[in-house]
Design brief:
The chain is of the alpha/beta class. It has eleven helices and 21 strands. The chain has one domain: Purple Acid Phosphatase, chain A, domain 2. The longest helix has 18 residues. The protein is globular, with a radius of gyration of 20 Å.
């Protein structure tokens, strides 16, 4: 009997009929009720405008701001979250279009992940459940397969500098608390579906029909290597704590073996950080991640999908030996960022002219991909401040030959 049950569980994970259609969105974890400690009351309008001028987010002398709502004190403002608008837009979209699952690209909980403040039940309910509950309403098999981002890790590392004890074992705060929540049977979130061990890794693989998905933890990759910032090389410390070289080695070894052993027709890798972007603020992180994994992806993967930049982008990333690697950025799940306004963004758009196919900023948004036989049909959608969605980009992507 136990063997029969095990077989049924495995079949439910991998068997899938017909084409596979899925949503892809990231950076959906921002909510107005959970602010950074130094901004919990809000920022003055003058402060918002000065920041826009400093960042170069200006058109015809006018600062370009994200949507704002009133803060906790008179005269102060906080950024408006787009999560519920994106969630509602995806729910409406999926009423008329096939949506079998969703991949979630990290930064699932802002600003620090799950915190030791006795508010995690509220945090999970408002951030992970409410915005997306209607997407899966009419599909009992619908699941959200999540990656971790730098904000999901943040409190884990601040609590105990560079030690694995809290990062890996503590189930009440940090990344582990989020993973524990996603392991519960009473929600649709999934993290590492093949293991029930409390020591399971923060990277994993799952299968749907002809597609194998490889979910990597890019925060732990970048935390173990050098990243140039402001023209000075230093350790990448997204949460003030580096990872160990051993962590990096084990994850890279796992990714290599998993890709090589996969028999799936399509192999899609996704994580939080980008390999390429034109947002203008994550350039050196993207360079470092390319150096770490691009060669492996060019050898064995069909697509890479990321968030991190709060915009919508699509690239055909160059590979030295073989066809370009499709590279999608869908990081506008709750926040928005400009593209093509700052000097750094303009420079990156010039430098990436040969590989950039599309970029749009200052919008919320999501992506939808349908994979059938040798093609992936990609659609990108913007979501406006009233929650209406529209198609902003389409591409029919042929499976890579490598």
């Amino acid at each position: 009997m136990k063997k029969i049950i095990l077989v049924l569980v495995l079949l439910s994970q991998s068997s899938f009929a017909g084409p596979l259609s899925f949503l892809a969105f990231g950076d959906s974890g921002y909510h107005e009720d959970f602010q950074k400690s130094d901004e919990k009351f809000g920022v003055s309008m003058q402060g918002w405008q000065e920041e826009a001028f400093e960042d170069g987010d200006v058109i015809d002398g006018r600062p370009i701001l994200p949507p704002l709502v009133r803060g906790r004190k008179p005269g102060l403002f906080i950024e408006k979250s787009g999560a519920k608008y994106v969630g509602n837009a995806m729910a409406r979209f999926c009423k008329t279009t096939r949506c079998d699952m969703a991949i979630v690209l990290g930064d699932n909980i802002y600003p620090n992940g799950a915190e030791p403040d006795n508010r995690n039940a509220e945090r999970f309910h408002k951030i992970l459940y409410l915005p997306f509950k209607d997407i899966a309403k009419n599909n009992k098999d619908f699941r959200f397969y999540a990656a971790l981002g730098n904000h999901d890790w943040k409190i884990s590392q601040e609590l105990e500098y560079a030690e694995a004890k809290i990062r890996r074992n503590n189930s009440t705060r940090g990344a582990r608390a989020q993973i524990t929540y996603m392991a519960r049977k009473d929600n649709r979130w999934v993290f590492n579906p093949t293991s029930n061990s409390p020591r399971r890794k923060t990277y994993y693989k799952f299968s749907k029909g002809d597609v194998d998905f490889f979910v990597i933890d890019t925060d732990r990759i970048l935390a173990a290597i050098l990243v140039q910032d402001d023209d000075e090389p230093k350790k990448f410390k997204p949460a003030d704590a580096p990872a160990t070289i051993r962590e990096l080695y084990y994850q890279m070894r796992w990714l290599r073996r998993a890709l090589e052993e996969s028999k799936a027709k399509w192999k899609i890798v996704y994580g939080h950080h980008t390999l390429w972007s034109v947002g203008g603020t994550k350039h050196y992180q993207a360079m470092a991640l390319r150096n770490a994994i691009l060669k492996r992806l060019c050898q064995s993967a069909d697509m890479y999908i990321a968030g991190h930049e709060h915009d919508m982008e699509f690239h055909m990333a160059p590979c030295k030996n073989g066809p370009p690697l499709p590279h999608l950025v869908s990081g506008a799940g709750s926040k928005m960022r400009s593209v093509g306004l700052s000097n750094s963004s303009k420079r990156l758009m010039r430098e990436q002219k040969g590989i950039l196919r599309f970029a749009k900023g200052m919008t919320w948004g999501f992506a939808h991909i349908t994979i059938e036989n040798n093609f992936a049909n990609l659609k990108l959608f913007s979501v406006d401040r009233q929650g209406r969605y529209k198609t902003i980009y389409k591409s029919k992507i042929k499976k890579r030959l490598y």
